[in-house]
């Protein structure tokens, strides 16, 4: 039998030809077993591994296509939303402008109405003042006239005697008579 250390150098111990035996050299048998297992795995596992990788590749490509479609759909919806937003902003600006102009018109109408009302009130006030002034003037005239009449009557009564009274009446009748002839 060979020495165990010799098997390390030769990497394997082969029984003599014609006989069948068990190889007890662990390192040599592990390498052979490992190479056989790897060969079988590569031969049979290659198809399975390729199928798995192809399936994975197809799923990744499908996911990428789906995400591209979703992204394009999202971009379309975003553009539509932006267009609607722009329309709404334009409408809101127009509405604001109309409302501001309407408010400005209402304010101007109110100012005009108030100024007209104030002008009318000023006219009424001035008319009332003129009316009161005229009434006060008429009252003063009436009093002055009454005072003058009372004074004249007092003077006439004190100065008039019967003879003067008759002459005055005759003169007045004469004036009325001549006026009647002129008018006829």
From TrEMBL:
Coiled coil: 64-134
Protein's recorded name: ATP synthase subunit b, chloroplastic
Transmembrane residue ranges: 26-49
Family: Belongs to the ATPase B chain family.
Membrane topology: Single-pass membrane protein
CDD domains in UniProt: ATP-synt_Fo_b
Quaternary state and interactors: F-type ATPases have 2 components, F(1) - the catalytic core - and F(0) - the membrane proton channel. F(1) has five subunits: alpha(3), beta(3), gamma(1), delta(1), epsilon(1). F(0) has four main subunits: a(1), b(1), b'(1) and c(10-14). The alpha and beta chains form an alternating ring which encloses part of the gamma chain. F(1) is attached to F(0) by a central stalk formed by the gamma and epsilon chains, while a peripheral stalk is formed by the delta, b and b' chains.
Listed GO CC annotations: chloroplast thylakoid membrane; proton-transporting ATP synthase complex
Function: Component of the F(0) channel, it forms part of the peripheral stalk, linking F(1) to F(0). F(1)F(0) ATP synthase produces ATP from ADP in the presence of a proton or sodium gradient. F-type ATPases consist of two structural domains, F(1) containing the extramembraneous catalytic core and F(0) containing the membrane proton channel, linked together by a central stalk and a peripheral stalk. During catalysis, ATP synthesis in the catalytic domain of F(1) is coupled via a rotary mechanism of the central stalk subunits to proton translocation.
Other information: In plastids the F-type ATPase is also known as CF(1)CF(0).
A Pfam family that the UniProt record links to this protein: ATP-synt_B
Keywords: ATP synthesis, CF(0), Chloroplast, Coiled coil, Hydrogen ion transport, Ion transport, Membrane, Plastid, Thylakoid, Transmembrane, Transmembrane helix, Transport
UniProt keyword Ion transport present: yes
UniProt cross-references to InterPro entries, sorted A to Z: ATP_synth_b/b'su_bac/chlpt
Protein location: Membrane; Plastid, Chloroplast thylakoid membrane
């Amino acid at each position: 039998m060979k020495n165990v250390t010799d098997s390390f150098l030769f990497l394997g111990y082969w029984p003599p030809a014609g006989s069948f035996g068990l190889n007890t050299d662990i390192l040599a048998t592990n390498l052979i077993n490992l190479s056989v297992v790897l060969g079988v795995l590569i031969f049979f596992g290659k198809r399975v591994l390729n199928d798995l990788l192809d399936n994975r590749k197809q799923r990744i490509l499908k996911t990428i296509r789906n995400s591209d479609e979703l992204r394009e759909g999202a971009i379309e919806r975003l553009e539509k939303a932006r267009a609607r937003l722009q329309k709404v902003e334009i409408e809101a600006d127009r509405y604001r402008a109309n409302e501001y102009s309407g408010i400005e018109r209402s304010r101007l109408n109110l100012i005009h109405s108030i100024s007209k009302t104030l002008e009318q009130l000023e006219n009424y006030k001035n008319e009332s003042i003129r009316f009161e002034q005229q009434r006060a003037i008429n009252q003063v005239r009436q009093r002055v006239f009454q005072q003058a009449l009372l004074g004249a009557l007092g003077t006439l009564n004190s100065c008039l005697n019967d003879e003067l009274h008759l002459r005055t009446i005759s003169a007045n009748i004469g004036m009325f008579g001549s006026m009647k002839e002129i008018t006829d």
